């Protein structure tokens, strides 16, 4: 748990910081800095001789990678026009499921042959290649020289308040290793989270150059994209957590059969990501997003109604369909989040959007575990418990569909 949190906390909390600093200091410069930090963290992890050093290395890794997603979205939004932005974002996004299909397999081979430390040298080589590629190919957008006044007047208290609120939120969702109380049950951490976020709102409204630009949320399309993307990630991470358990407990599939189902999901997500972006360029972002959210409702209802005797091919079909459906909306949501955002604000907007997305991912796993526990405690059978969880997901998908109506071209 600590190893996971050591990476997840800075990764999620520092996304807005990278975006905001990217607007003032240059986005390419921040990507290069993040890559260097990731390499430093990886070197600590691979040479760690104690668990605390390992955790520190993971935290530095998370700090380095926090800027990759928001800065990439912001660079694409600035460099490409609205008529081709979706296609480019789709191509960029398709790399993630591709690595999800290939890296675990080859990483497993390395671990089996040489131990867990063997997975890091190839990653570090990839990081060094990334430094060269970014420096050579990504344009300099924004500031070419560092302005000391920008850093001196930066809203560092806003950074502290938002980061503290996110830490409290993450601890609330996974409180057992922190306070010994089950996740989503320690009201003290929830109260602390509310206090920090209330303080953030109070402070940011009085700043001329706030860390969190609340004016961005007056853009209804940006707000709708953030909300819909957060709920989509909640569903995606929840299903990734629940599906292997469901296939094993209810349908008694072997580990290899479960692996096939997950590979089908990742494979179809990879295949459709670019097409989803092209649809957004052709139709506008709203239609493919709505198509995806309505499809999620259908998938969740299907899982909730499946009998225990459902054939394996149907389980595989639903897994593949889930990958297709979530992949359709990925690039359109990124595209919608940048709709109407001024070029000098793309980094800050992308940072907030990315933070909300990944907060949904972290909350999804925590809530899925708690809901399944409650279902198993209150339902008479295991299948009834899983059906209870899937019906809750139907409700989340309905809310995400309603939120998607706010996306405008």
Task: Explain this structure.
With 409 residues, the protein is mainly alpha-helical. It has two domains: 2-154 and 211-404, Up-down Bundle (Growth Hormone, Chain: A), CATH 1.20.1250.20; 155-210. 80% of the residues lie in helices and 0% in strands. It has 19 helices and no strands. The longest helix is centred in the last third of the chain and has 33 residues, at 346-378. It starts with a helix and ends in a 5-residue tail after the last helix.
According to CATH, the fold-level topology of the largest domain is Growth Hormone, Chain: A
**What is the percent of helical residues?**
over 70%
- Total number of distinct structural domains: 2
Top CATH class of the largest domain: Mainly Alpha
Q: What share of the residues does DSSP label as strand, in percent?
A: under 5%
Largest sheet: none
Gyration radius, to the nearest Å? 21 Å
Poorly predicted runs are none
Roughly how many Å apart are the termini? 42 Å
The count of DSSP E runs of length 2 or more, i.e. the number of strands, is 0
Ordered list of secondary-structure elements with their pairings:
Blueprint: H1 2-13, H2 15-25, H3 27-47, H4 51-65, H5 68-79, H6 82-93, H7 95-114, H8 120-137, H9 148-152, H10 156-173, H11 176-179, H12 187-204, H13 220-249, H14 255-283, H15 286-305, H16 312-328, H17 330-337, H18 346-378, H19 382-404
Helix pairs in contact: 1-4, 1-10, 2-3, 2-5, 2-18, 3-4, 3-5, 3-8, 5-18, 6-14, 6-17, 7-14, 10-12, 13-14, 13-17, 13-18, 13-19, 14-16, 14-17, 15-16, 15-19, 18-19
Question: Characteristics of this structure?
Answer:
409 residues, mainly alpha, Growth Hormone, Chain: A, 2 domains, 0% strand
């Amino acid at each position: 748990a600590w190893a996971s949190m050591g990476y997840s906390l800075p990764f999620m909390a520092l996304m807005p910081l990278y975006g905001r600093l990217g607007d003032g200091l240059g986005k390419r410069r921040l990507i290069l800095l993040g890559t260097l930090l990731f390499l430093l963290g990886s070197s600590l992890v691979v040479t760690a001789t104690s668990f605390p050093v390992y955790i520190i290395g993971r935290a530095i890794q998370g700090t380095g990678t926090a800027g990759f997603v928001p800065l990439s979205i912001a660079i694409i939004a600035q460099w490409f026009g609205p008529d081709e932005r979706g296609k480019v974002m789709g191509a960029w996004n398709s790399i993630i499921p591709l690595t999800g299909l290939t890296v675990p397999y080859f990483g497993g081979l390395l671990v089996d042959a040489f131990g867990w430390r063997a997975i890091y040298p190839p990653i570090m080589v990839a990081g060094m290649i990334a430094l060269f590629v970014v420096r050579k190919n990504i344009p300099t957008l924004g500031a070419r020289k560092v302005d000391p006044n920008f850093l001196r007047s930066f809203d560092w208290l806003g950074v502290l308040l938002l980061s503290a609120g996110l830490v409290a939120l993450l601890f609330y969702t996974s409180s057992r290793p922190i306070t010994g109380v089950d996740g989503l049950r320690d009201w003290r951490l929830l109260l602390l989270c509310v206090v920090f976020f209330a303080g953030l709102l109070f402070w940011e409204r009085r700043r001329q150059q706030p860390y969190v630009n609340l004016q961005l949320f007056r853009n209804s399309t940006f707000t709708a994209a953030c909300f819909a993307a957060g709920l989509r990630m909640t569903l995606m991470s929840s299903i990734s957590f629940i599906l292997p358990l469901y296939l094993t407990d209810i349908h008694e599939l072997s580990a290899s059969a479960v692996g096939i189902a997950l590979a089908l999901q990742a494979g179809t997500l990879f295949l459709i990501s670019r097409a989803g972006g092209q649809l957004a360029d052709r139709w506008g972002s709203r239609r493919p997003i709505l198509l995806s959210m309505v499809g999620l409702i259908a998938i969740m209802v299907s899982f909730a109604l499946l009998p225990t005797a459902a054939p394996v091919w149907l389980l595989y079909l639903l897994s593949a369909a889930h990958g297709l459906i979530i992949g359709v909306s990925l690039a359109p949501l990124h595209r919608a989040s940048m709709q109407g955002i001024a070029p000098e604000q793309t980094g800050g907007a992308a940072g907030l959007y990315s933070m909300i997305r990944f907060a949904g991912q972290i909350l999804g796993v925590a809530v899925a575990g708690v809901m399944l526990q409650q279902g198993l405690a209150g339902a008479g059978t295991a299948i009834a418990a899983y059906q209870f969880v899937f019906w809750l997901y139907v409700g989340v998908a309905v809310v995400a569909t309603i939120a998607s109506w706010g996306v405008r071209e």
